[in-house]
Amino acid sequence: MSDCCEGHGTGRSRAVPNGAGHLVIIGGGSAAFAATTRATDRGWRVTLVNDGLPIGGTCVNVGCVPSKALIRAAEAHHRARSHSFAGIESSSRVTDFGAITSQTNTLVEALRQEKYLDVVKDIPGVEIVKGRARLRNHREIEVDGRVLQADRVLIATGARPRVPEVPGLAQVEYLTTDAVFKLREAPNSILVLGGRYIALECAQMFTRLGVKTTVLQRSERILPTESAPLTDALSGYLEEEAVDIQTGVELRSVRSGRTGVSVEAAVGGETRTFHAERILVATGRTPNTEELDLKAAGVEVDRDGFIKVDENLQTTIPGIYAAGDVIGEPMFVYTAAYEGALAAENACAADGEPARARDYHPLPWVVFTDPQVAGVGMDQAQAESAGIDAETVKLPMTKVPRALAARETHGFLQLTRSRGNDRILGARVLAHEGSEIMMEVSLAVRFRMTARDLASMFHPYLTLGEAVKLAALSFGKDVSKLSCCAT
Ligand SMILES: Cc1cc2nc3c(=O)[nH]c(=O)nc-3n(C[C@H](O)[C@H](O)[C@H](O)COP(=O)(O)OP(=O)(O)OC[C@H]3O[C@@H](n4cnc5c(N)ncnc54)[C@H](O)[C@@H]3O)c2cc1C
């Protein structure tokens, strides 16, 4: 195609007659599938090109699904071994680690079929191509010698584990999340590099399944973007379960020996050596952009390689869109799917139809440790730095009847409101299954509800959701002085 970069720099791309376009999607994960259904709903033909991970991409194959399935298995084992109920004696033993991962793999395969392949198999006009795609120009995609002509292109190639440059690391047989959930045997011990959500979820899961686990985190705190009281409390709970958490760790070198892997690091001015049978690298994600030949089409990336997009998810080249992890934070499966659908809608819009801008407000998020950490909107520090006169109440889970009955009273809920108009600004929770209450606060933030609104709602007794009501009541009242279900 000689018309490379037609519309280049004008912000508009060549008009496509309604319902007659061809969208080529590079990548086969959640963003790509959401885009496929949205584009075909609009009458477009879709060619989806995927390689690397199997169809479904990160979430179903090596991310959300296997991690959460294994976390649940580890939790079932943990609860059976240690619960707080009198008069019940129980025990649990891991007899076959490989059986746990193979059961997880069966679930992965079933969901890959049901939630991805089956979803598109009966949609006319969808072709799935296996192969590595690269851009020849802004309208031509080459896949193993075959050239696809596109009216619009969507890049949804996701991200992969980022491996830090530490001397010796490349020479050892390190694990990443691409392989760790498929291990047939549990190691005796593991070093986990990283201290954010993926690292912490894996660390607790391994510890609960009997693996001696050490977290090596560069920052002074785990989950360093969250407040110190929250991360300190989480560290305490994880350490009670024997997760060894080392922070302020500056990695110096890695080497393998007869019995595993050794990491030399500077910790608080001292040189220390950590040793374990295996090492898991969970130090963040890097975008899959190098092999796309983005320069051939003029698509720009930021300094970390993530594709630059505007509010409508269009890249620096009109007609080429990008969505999902490949455009950077937020990197969740639900935001990837949202972006994929939105990008497809904008890419396949009829001539003259206004483009829709992305809007993540409010964006709830979860860390699937136990207790879970979840949040939405602003915490006190964020509200203050936004210049809002804010107030935060902290409700310990010991005040929540559901938590008392379940004997799961770890943690607390922090609810933040604007002092001026009582509007809910956000919340943070650290609690067993705490993520379940975050959607109520998300609705409150989204629909500009006040603490008074939340406090006046019926909340069934005993539910975890009562925590939200009790926290809302705590603005101005001492809830420990209220009788059951009082308002
Ligand atoms: C361990 C782990 C746990 C997670 N847990 C959660 C969770 O609980 N909840 C949550 O919301 N999110 C979670 N996430 C994040 C979530 O999985 C991702 O945000 C999401 O899957 C990204 O989807 P995507 O479509 O952008 O990319 P992907 O799903 O990564 O899909 C991209 C696809 O494109 C392919 N590809 C790359 N380059 C090319 C090329 N040149 N040609 C053809 N194909 C190519 C890739 O191999 C892949 O198949 C987790 C991630 C990890 C790693």
Walkthrough of the structure:
- The chain is an alpha/beta fold.
- It is built from 14 helices and 22 strands.
- It has helices at residues 30-41, 57-62, 64-81, 97-121, 177-180, 197-208, 228-240, 294-297, 333-347, 380-385, 401-406, 438-446, 451-455, 466-474; strands at 22-26, 45-50, 126-130, 133-135, 140-143, 146-149, 152-155, 159-161, 189-193, 212-216, 244-246, 249-257, 260-267, 270-276, 278-281, 285-287, 320-322, 365-367, 372-377, 390-396, 412-418, 424-431.
- The strands form six sheets. The chain has a five-stranded parallel beta sheet, covered by helices on one side.
- The longest helix is centred in the first third of the chain and has 25 residues, at 97-121.
- The relative contact order is 0.12.
- The model is unreliable at 1-12 (pLDDT under 50).
- The structure holds flavin-adenine dinucleotide.
- The site of flavin-adenine dinucleotide has 38 residues, from α1, β2, α2, α3 and α9.
Mean pLDDT: 94
DSSP helix fraction: 25-40%
Number of DSSP E strands? 22
Distance between the termini: 69 Å
Strand order, biggest sheet? 3-2-1-7-17
- Overall shape: it is globular
Low-confidence stretches: 1-12
Helical segment count: 14
Bound molecules: flavin-adenine dinucleotide
Largest sheet: 5 strands, parallel
Strand percentage, roughly? 15-25%
> What's the gyration radius in Å?
25 Å
Structural classification: alpha/beta
